Queue: 2 jobs
Job 1
Amino acid sequence: MKPILECQGLSKRYSSSFYALNNLNLALEKGQIVGLLGPNGSGKTTLIKLINDCLHPTQGTILIDGMEPGVATKKLISYLPERTCLDLSMKVKDVIAYYADFYENFVTERAYQMLQDLEINPNARLKSLSKGTKEKVQLILIMSRDAKLYILDEPIGGVDPAARDYILHTILNNYNEEATILLSTHLIQDIENILDRVVFIRQGQVVLNQTVDEIRTQHGKSVDSLFREVFRC
Ligand SMILES: Nc1ncnc2c1ncn2[C@@H]1O[C@H](COP(=O)(O)OP(=O)(O)OP(=O)(O)O)[C@@H](O)[C@H]1O
């Protein structure tokens, strides 16, 4: 089966001597939830921006479902960036209508179902919502598209711990199982029970790419414990 994402020899240089990504190789099969994990500054957001065609590689190639990043791949990817810039004066229901207009693969009923599950009022204005609830709305907008690849850069940082599990399960219940989710986060303990695979990245290179089951059987520990061991300062 063709991988949904394939990066070969991928490098990104920001200044004359500093490489944020350095000959990174990664292939992801369809239909899995993948955690992209690494310490601050390891290159996670840089990789995500390259996949989303927000940056161009210095060297190497990226293929998304066999295609180079561009107009066609943007239809396949639903991307939640680190920072979003929604018009805060809009009501939740207006943002949903806006997304439905903009993206032909947006499923409005799914968005309303998730709003209801998370008890968010569609008539509320975004600026009246707490930071965590705004994050929930942003996640709902992203997960309501019928995409092949969902890329979520730190999706639940502002959400309170009690709501995280609920949100993660809401995501799982609403996404197509043939799709792939690539999720970058530092909240490993909170998400590791929904992950199929983890990719550890250090200084712009992949240092581990294993299923969560392999980690538990081969290393005899949780992803969170392994992360702390591998990246101990
Ligand atoms: N626009 C830029 N110009 C110069 N250097 C940059 C730029 N963006 C990122 N970097 C550097 O590239 C490296 C990788 O940054 P990146 O944001 O990809 O890391 P990250 O793994 O997402 O980090 P974090 O977990 O802190 O969000 C860091 O050293 C960062 O300072």
Note: The longest strand covers residues 19-28.
Job 2
Amino acid sequence: MGQAFSITPARRLSGEIAVAGDKSISHRALMLAALAEGESVIEGLLPGDDPRSTAACLRALGAEISGIDGPSVRVRGVGPGRLHEPADVLDMGNSGTTMRLMLGVLAGQPGLFCTLTGDRSLRSRPMLRVVSPLRQMGARIWGREEGGRAPLAVWGEQLKAIDFVSPVASAQVKSAVLLAGLLAEGLTSVSEPVRSRDHSERMLRAFGAEVLVDGTTAAVRGPARLRAQSLRVPGDISSAAFWLVAGSIVPDSELLLSGVGVNPTRTGILDALTAMGADIAVENRREVCGEPVADLRVRSAPLKACTIGGEWIPRLVDEIPVLAVAACCAAGKTVICDAAELRVKESDRLATMARELGRLGAHIEERPDGLVIEGGHPLVGAGVESHADHRVAMSLAVAGLVAAGTTKIADSDCATVSYPQFYEQLARVRQP
Ligand SMILES: O=C(O)C1=C[C@@H](OP(=O)(O)O)[C@@H](O)[C@H](O)C1
Ligand SMILES: C=C(OP(=O)(O)O)C(=O)O
């Protein structure tokens, strides 16, 4: 059990915040740099536990990675199909993205044997969604529940290209298949019901792969050679989301979030909060290394309820815990639906948010695929738990900014998974 964090209401929030580097883009930058020929330089990489898990695996597979704690990380790649066999089990910690994307990388490295594991949460998360399409490509993967749960073992094979129709809109599934397609002969395609985040497609192109995108189908042509790149990782809109909600619900607040990624496959949080009446300005739009970036200015505003579901969900899937906090402070009944995917994240986020916000006095009902939240009932501080889920911990800290008295969050330091600077930045912008 990690440390507890206690928080009392803030009078206002003000200041400028450089939010942590994007976690999704950080994983991809490390992986593609490790597979490329030559030395890549990555600036703004998230120094969080999850990208560190990716870096540790890639090192064990032969990539040279230096400066991981500094402003620019150097990665000397091994070249396609030339990863080294690791001498030990690859431990992916808490990171679903590391395990699912690395399965795609490893399955196509002929003759390479690897075992993959992670923490208790990761070992309980579904892997068949990635293992099944990879097996269709010829991959040999074993594990608990017929390969459905880690620990997993992979024996690398020469893979064949497939056209995969994914039943879930998942960037991890799409990316795993596309990464496997880099070493398969011909065009490997993935079609999904709704377009998920497209960072892999953008970055594969930047590294020199041929990527084709048509509606909700993305394809890569293999075999592909990747060339080392200089990259800059934008701020993570999923981390910015905590400030967008906090700045909206704490009275008299104004926060400027600089250099945040505003890729349209990720900006559902801006659409949802705007529909709820939030005052968010998107300033200074620009493009950085193939990703749209902007500064976001949020000022407090009275929020109203809205319905969040359908095609919005993949564009804000990680922001639902903090949107639930916004809904507690919004007039009327907010309905979050089509979000059953939240049950297979680091925790069952529908159950954990319903339980913990309920402890603070929220009127919140759990549904099989979402939450119904009757806003406007004042929150009152209490002891709550993160369930070792970084987004739950930080969402509860945001709730603590408006809950009367003291909110004490047990096991709060799991925030380091995606946002190591979170509590320090909170102390800086919080006016007591
Ligand atoms: O590809 C990625 O980087 C991610 C995709 C999403 O997961 P799914 O692919 O399971 O939807 C998201 O929840 C996760 O935090 C990061
Ligand atoms: C679900 C998440 O990450 P992952 O799947 O990589 O563990 C997250 O960061 O909210």
Note: The mean pLDDT is 97.
